[in-house]
Amino acid sequence: MSLVPPRSPRAMSLSPVPAVSPGGVVAVVQVTSTADKEHNWQQCSALVRRAAERGARAVFLPEGFDFIGDSPQQSLALAEPLHGDIVGRYCQLAKECDVWLSLGGFHERGQDWDSTGRIYNCHLLLDNSGAVVAAYRKLHLFDAALPGAPALSESSFTNPGRELLPPIPTPVGKLGLAVCYDLRFPELAQALRGAGAQILTFPSAFTVPTGAAHWE
């Protein structure tokens, strides 16, 4: 887990916007998720509490914070709706710790689950009262065929989102919500920036080869 002060958007080579209010620190949580949801919850909740104790106003969790399944079939079986147990736990945690929580990629059984049998990759934002203030569903799904490795096809079991959300005001600045592979589509970031986003979020769960390629 790393704790960093919010960066001023004026450091970017883009049109100026009001500076981020320095109302505390931002915590970025890194974990290795597994298919064991209880294990992942214990890891994440402990780090959120630790960040809150150190003065964080907002805590950011990665894509797949809830779990990483061993197969698409397992991911579908483990997925929950927004009103399920996992989101309920994090809502209570945000309230108890008095922090905003960015839940970077939740495996969501949406309202169309019964008809599609597919899930959404959903980036949730909770405020410090425990309320869900935004739910962005990943627009760009990750399909890749890597030499010598199994093909990756998020679109085979995941529905794409349908809209880009406007930036959300928070105690650390206006957040633009995205997820992982959205990073490859600069028009999305430009649209969020043009709408006033001061912080762009791309919570990610990379494989080793794709992660290295992204950062390269």
TrEMBL record:
Domain CN hydrolase, by residue range, is 24-216
Show the Gene3D superfamilies listed in the entry. Carbon-nitrogen hydrolase
Q: Name one Pfam family in it.
A: CN_hydrolase
Q: Which domain of life is it from?
A: Eukaryota
Under the heading InterPro entries, the entry gives: C-N_Hydrolase, C-N_Hydrolase_sf, UPF0012_CS
Name of the molecule in the record: Nitrilase 1
The organism encoding this protein is: Lamprotornis superbus
